[in-house]
Amino acid sequence: MTTKEVLKELEGYADATTKNIYIKHGAKEPVFGVKVADLKKILKKTKKNHDLSLALYKTGNSDAMYLAGLMADESKISKKELQEWVEGAYWYYISEFAVPWVAAETPFGFELGLEWLESDKENIQAAGWSTLSSYASLNESDNLDLKIYKKLLKKAEAEVHKDENRVSYTINNFIIAVGTYIPELSEEAKAAGSRIGKVKVNMAEVNCKVPLAVEKIDKVIEKGRVGVKRKTARC
């Protein structure tokens, strides 16, 4: 499929209600408002396609950008291309999901995550925390730098209430991810979750509910699922 053909299909799946929700949460034109389930119908036709994913992301259409993340080939995408993607990820649908998911599946995902969370831009910081969360969900402890994750856990606890924005949201999710996917740090993450308590996130007119980290980790512990890894970050 060509870029034009994909955009035409995306337009065919346009949903006004979904579009309004996306815009309320931060999306801007151009956006059709395509449900993820419909994006995956297109993905079945294209499979992973490096060149097409790059072209779709460059359109600036929110639906195409998210689809690009699902379509990206983690074995071919470069650090430079991912850096361009994260800089163009203007709202959380892209910056906290589409781009970090791809980054986490690359050999340099951990490195990028560390770089991004030090950015002075909110969307890139959030992408950094999200990337490191997904990276932990995919890799066994033997392949993770547990010393750095332990330091990041302390950093997360110290900064989670700092700005009350999307960075705070992704930091809270990072604590949950550490408690869920890294057995060696699960109890420390749970303790951090207990200390930070409820995290507040201001999202304009959107009433954003932030999960309690300690409760989420407790549920994983109760189910005996701590350390169970994911096959892919993307969904």
Secondary-structure map:
Blueprint: H1 3-12, H2 16-25, H3 36-46, H4 50-58, H5 62-71, H6 79-88, H7 92-104, H8 109-116, H9 122-138, H10 146-159, H11 166-181, H12 186-196, H13 213-222
Helix pairs in contact: 3-5, 4-5, 5-7, 6-7, 7-8, 7-9, 8-9, 9-11, 10-11, 10-12, 11-12, 11-13, 12-13
Count of helical stretches: 13
Domains (count)? 2
Report strand %: under 5%
Q: Mean pLDDT score, rounded?
A: 96
Specify Rg, calculated over alpha carbons: 18 Å
Poorly predicted parts: none
Number of strands: 0
Instruction: Categorize the overall geometry.
Output: globular
Question: Which range best describes the helical content: under 10%, 10-25%, 25-40%, 40-55%, 55-70% or over 70%?
Answer: 55-70%
Report on the biggest sheet. none
Helix/strand/pairing class, anyone?
mainly alpha
H/E order of the elements? HHHHHHHHHHHHH
> For the terminal residues, how far apart are their CA atoms?
22 Å
